[in-house]
Amino acid sequence: MPEPRCVPLPDRGILRLSGEDARSFLQGLISNDVDRLAPDRALHAALLTPQGKYLFDFMLHERKGGEILLDAERDRLPALVQRLTMYRLRADVTIADASHELGVLAVLGEAAPAAFGLPAAPGAARLVGDDAATAVVAVDPRAAALGVRVVLPRDAVPRFRAEHGLAEGELADWDRLRLEQGVPDGSRDLVVERSLLLESGFEELGGVSFTKGCFVGQELTARTKHRGLVKKRLVPVRIHGPLPAVGTVVRRGEREAGEMRSSVSGADGTDGIGLALLRLEQLTPMAAASGPLRAGEATLTPAPPLWLELTAQD
Asked: Of 159, 151, 42, 158, which is closest to residue 102 (Cα–Cα)?
């Protein structure tokens, strides 16, 4: 079994939420059930517009004393703070950008959970280290195949890697893995104020709860599920040819089939891998028989992971 590889994620930032109302504040806003968050359980969730469209998504971790950490896109943290502050009103919540202090690592490999004494179950978590350099370690709450995420003080990274014998990986390794698993990476793959959670795998990847009660955008999200309104899905595609730019229209013959999202070149010159938002009707055997999917000069072959059920809805 390959040894775990450690990949820093420089595009991730950390918000620290504290105060007596931090948990209840988030519970009324975000798509997942914050009551399930604990030091031994991490979550994935999104914040939506009132109309149920994607704004932000993030991992949630709980530290000692009930402090909650949000692992989110670093470049979009100011906008996330602004949105959360708009909802705060009189709640006893302090929202602080801790990105200068805390960083995020991905530890890849089948052996990654065991290396930290964790079961290979999405969201399984624990605190590792002493008080001065405590790391929050969690199996990726979206899919165990993505390995382990670590939030820790930036100056503790070299020591952490040495203590756990972690080999160095490349950012492309991480991108390749998450694309193969069909997992979107924030606004690289989801269109702000346009994308829907259920088109983007959030239900299957544990990012939305339909039993927690109300959250911002809950009404449209629930209606989309119960009325069978999902007509498109984010799907991994093998790319034969040059990588298409994000937003490139995908066609089958003259008919529009969808739109490209992020992609990365294959290892050792193999075909690339990417995500495309595709119409479900274009993913049937009948549609495939009419010709290949193309995006720009590339030919695409859908490669859905086992968790993704592509069933067209009437």
From this structure: 151
